[in-house]
UniProtKB/TrEMBL annotation:
CDD domains referenced in this protein's UniProt entry, alphabetically: ENDO3c
Protein name, as recorded: Endonuclease III
High-level lineage: Bacteria, Pseudomonadati, Bacteroidota, Cytophagia, Cytophagales
UniProt domain HhH-GPD: residue ranges: 36-182
Keyword Metal-binding attached: yes
Amino acid sequence: MKDWNKILKPLLALYRNKRHPLEYQNLYQLLVMVVLSAQDSDANINKISPALFEAFPDMASLSKADMDSLIPFISKVRKFNTKASWLLEIAQIIKEDNNIPKTLDELVALKGIGRKSANVILRESGGKSEGVIVDLHVIRVAPRLGLVTELKDGIKIEKQIMTQLTEDMWAVGMPISFLGREICRPTNPKCDECILNADCDFYQTTI
């Protein structure tokens, strides 16, 4: 049986301090951008965010917004109507930046924030890892490695990773995502450049 804690430590060390691709400036911006980025690209959210945050620079200003004032700034985001309603409800509940939750349970209680989003917020804000970030890249890479047997369900993949690793290694979710973005691409993965290829099922069986 593979010791995944030992195998993944170099990956965690490589990417531990690399920021998420969302270009946020503070926790408020991070939360809003994470909500907007669901089923959309980080690049698109980065593009629309400067004007959005000029109009609504903090949670207090967002809490005074309505659909008509918010939607023009996010109309190029997928499912913008739904996301607008989520953000307005979140702002009504939180009201001030310093009230933004710092735990996974409190974050997932908010509309539009699931476990993946909550784990991203905790990681980027320096909070304690309470789970593993599982995005589309992790869903692709983790089964390739042989780290998990589940192929599609992000929640099941997260649970399997958590059982394979000690809690101090749960922060490896985002490093696995970065590996997927840079090396373990959907097509033509750069396996020869991967620091995990010696322990990767995909590399060992297909390359």
